């Protein structure tokens, strides 16, 4: 089983719909992140959480919200999806206690907003 | 604030030729540096990292990178590429206790 699991893998939705992308991890890491990937723009940070009670906005948080339901779960919501939110979304985790902290990524969720 | 610049968006190279993917960063404090690779239809995985010590770091699949503090660079190199190296490569930086910042990526295409 994957250490960082994202569901769904693919989603097509209509403008104005509410969408939730879920992420769970079995690595026991305290930190979790949501990124979106767009061609030519690389990965941009949407939100990050350094522990269950610590949620922070990233560089492109407008139009998104998150919930850290438990240390292992971090969900991303689009309250009213719009076409320019079509992108590949990645969840990632890291361990702040590690001397060589690095990111571990899920396999991604491809979201298309029509 | 930190930022990462990958100067080349696409790099085509013939099989068995050497390759260098460039990465420059800006930061007012010390950073940790990373290269991640994304194979088609997959997530990102760590290729190599620089935390401290020797400025030449070796990673998986024969890749290496050299940290140059004076030039604020962390270029990725491989002396002889294979078809299987075709992928998207991302440079990233992290400041202690803070989040990761990524470059825009370099698409490496190895030509048979």
Describe what this molecule looks like in 3D:
The complex is a heterodimer of chains A (114) and B (112). With 114 residues, chain A is mostly beta strands. Chain A is 0% helix and 56% strand. Chain A is built from no helices and eleven strands. In chain A, strands 2, 4, 5, 6, 9, 10 and 11 form a seven-stranded mixed β-sheet that branches. Chain A has a four-stranded antiparallel β-sheet with strand order 1-3-8-7, with no helix packed on it. The termini of chain A are far apart. In chain B, strands 2, 5, 6, 10, 11 and 12 form a six-stranded mixed β-sheet that branches. A four-stranded antiparallel β-sheet of chain B has the order 3-9-8-7, with no helix packed on it. With 112 residues, chain B is an all-beta fold. Chain B is 0% helix and 53% strand. Chain B is built from no helices and twelve strands. The relative contact order of chain B is 0.33. The chains are: A mainly beta (114), B mainly beta (112). Chains A and B meet through strand 5 and strand 9 of A and strand 5, strand 6, strand 10 and strand 11 of B.
What layout of secondary structure does this protein have?
The complex is a heterodimer of chains A (114) and B (112).
Chain A: E1 4-7, E2 10-13, E3 19-25, E4 31-38, E5 42-51, E6 54-57, E7 65-70, E8 73-78, E9 87-94, E10 104-105, E11 109-113
Parallel strand pairs in A: 2-11
Antiparallel strand pairs in A: 1-3, 3-8, 4-5, 4-9, 5-6, 7-8, 9-10, 9-11
Chain B: E1 3-5, E2 10-14, E3 19-21, E4 24-26, E5 32-38, E6 44-50, E7 56-58, E8 64-68, E9 73-78, E10 87-94, E11 100-102, E12 106-111
Parallel strand pairs in B: 2-12
Antiparallel strand pairs in B: 1-4, 3-9, 5-6, 5-10, 7-8, 8-9, 10-11, 10-12
Keywords for this structure?
heterodimer, A: 114 residues, mainly beta, 7-stranded mixed sheet, 4-stranded antiparallel sheet, 56% strand, globular, B: 112 residues, 6-stranded mixed sheet, 12 strands, 0% helix
């Amino acid at each position: 089983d994957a250490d960082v699991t994202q569901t769904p893998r693919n989603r097509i939705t209509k403008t104005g719909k509410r969408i939730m992308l879920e992420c769970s991890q079995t690595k026991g890491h305290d930190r979790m992140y949501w990124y979106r990937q767009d061609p030519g723009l690389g990965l941009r940070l949407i939100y990050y959480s350094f522990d269950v009670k610590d949620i922070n906005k990233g560089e492109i948080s407008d139009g998104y919200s998150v919930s850290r339901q438990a240390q292992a779960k971090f969900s991303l919501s689009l309250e009213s999806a719009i076409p320019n939110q079509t992108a590949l979304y990645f969840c990632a985790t890291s361990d702040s206690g590690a001397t060589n902290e690095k990111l571990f990524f899920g396999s991604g969720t491809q979201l298309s907003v029509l | 604030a930190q930022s990462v610049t990958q100067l080349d968006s696409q790099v085509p190279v013939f099989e068995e030729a050497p390759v260098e993917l460039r990465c420059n960063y800006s930061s007012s404090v010390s950073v940790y540096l990373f290269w991640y690779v994304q194979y088609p239809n997959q997530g990102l995985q760590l290729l190599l990292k620089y935390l401290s010590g020797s400025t030449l770091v070796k990673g998986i699949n024969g890749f290496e990178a050299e940290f140059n503090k004076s030039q604020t660079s962390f270029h990725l190199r491989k002396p002889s590429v294979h078809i299987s190296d075709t992928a998207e490569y991302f440079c990233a930086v992290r400041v202690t206790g803070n989040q990761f910042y990524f470059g825009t990526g370099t698409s490496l295409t190895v030509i048979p």
